[in-house]
Amino acid sequence: MSLVIKNLQRVVPIRRVPLRRKMDLVRSILGVKKFDLGIICVDNKTIQNINRIYRNKNVPTDVLSFSFHENLKAGEFPQPHSPDDYNLGDIFLGVEYILQHCRESEDYCDVLTVTATHGLCHLLGFTHSSKAEWQKMYNQEKLVLEELSRYTGARLQPLSRGLY
């Protein structure tokens, strides 16, 4: 199905083609290419507003995920009942925030890919609210990014690295 990447900000230039290519690979690795996915790139003001409304945190952040399917357990695939259910949800990338926290030695597109992969794991039920949940999420991210690295040659590390 489709991967839609929308850039709703003008602060940071976004190269959508490489991001799309990498996220299509991530979707293949995870086995979710038959599901629609939205990735929306926003600035600090917008991501802060969304974070305030949905998480009661009035600060910008790197990624927010909104799953189409509720109550998925870590690693479960959605069980669509109709064609309209073939949707994973939307990932909002705070691209300005991500750029501000990107190290000089890091490739910005790689960091966007890692962050979007983290968001996609959330859409598949992974969380990091406890050490046990974090370990599952970290392992999943690591597995996916290692496989992606084989295709791209990049050395990608999970976003959730070092949370616990």
Task: Please name the defining characteristics of this protein.
alpha/beta, 44% helix, 164 residues, Collagenase (Catalytic Domain), 5 helices, globular
List the helices and strands and how they pair.
Elements lengths: L2 E5 L8 H15 L5 E7 L1 H12 L7 E5 L19 E8 H7 L6 H16 L7 H22 L12
Helix pairs in contact: 1-4, 1-5, 4-5
Please provide a written account of the structure.
- Keywords: Endonuclease, Hydrolase, Metal-binding, Nuclease, Zinc.
- One of its GO terms (cellular component) is mitochondrion.
- GO terms for molecular function: metal ion binding; metalloendopeptidase activity; RNA endonuclease activity.
- It comes from Mus musculus.
- Zn(2+) binds at residues 118, 122, 128.
- By secondary structure, the chain is an alpha/beta fold.
- The chain has a single domain, classed as Collagenase (Catalytic Domain) (3-Layer(aba) Sandwich), CATH 3.40.390.
- Helices cover 44% and strands 15% of the residues.
- The protein contains 5 helices and 4 strands, in the order E-H-E-H-E-E-H-H-H.
- It has helices spanning 16-30, 44-55, 95-101, 108-123, 131-152; strands spanning 3-7, 36-42, 63-67, 87-94.
- The chain has a 4-stranded mixed sheet with strand order 1-2-4-3, sandwiched between helices.
